[in-house]
Amino acid sequence: MVRKGDKEIVQMMQPYDQIDASMVTAYLENWLFKTTIYLSDNIRN
Predict the structure, then answer these.
(1) What pLDDT does residue 3 have?
(2) What is the Cα–Cα distance from 36 to 42, expressed in whole angstroms?
(3) Please, which domain of life does this record's source organism belong to (predicted)?
(4) How far apart are CA 27 and CA 23, in angstroms?
């Protein structure tokens, strides 16, 4: 009973870990992209 419960919890948690990782990666890429544009605009002006 306990093993089955643990297995279900692990299966439930795994997708969230993947989603969190991809969300963090996307956020960092977006931040880097905006920062690069902002810096390049300031260097030109």
Answers:
(1) 66
(2) 10
(3) Bacteria
(4) 6
Cα–Cα distance measured from residue 19 to residue 24, given in angstroms and rounded to the nearest whole number: 9
Q: Please tell me the predicted confidence (pLDDT) of residue 38.
A: 92
CA dist 24 and 2 (Å) reads 33
Tokens of 1: 């009973």
Give the model confidence (pLDDT) of 7-42 as tens digits. Answer: 776 776 666 666 677 888 889 999 999 999 999 998
The per-residue pLDDT for 16 is 65
- In this structure, what token pair is assigned to residue 34? 């905006």
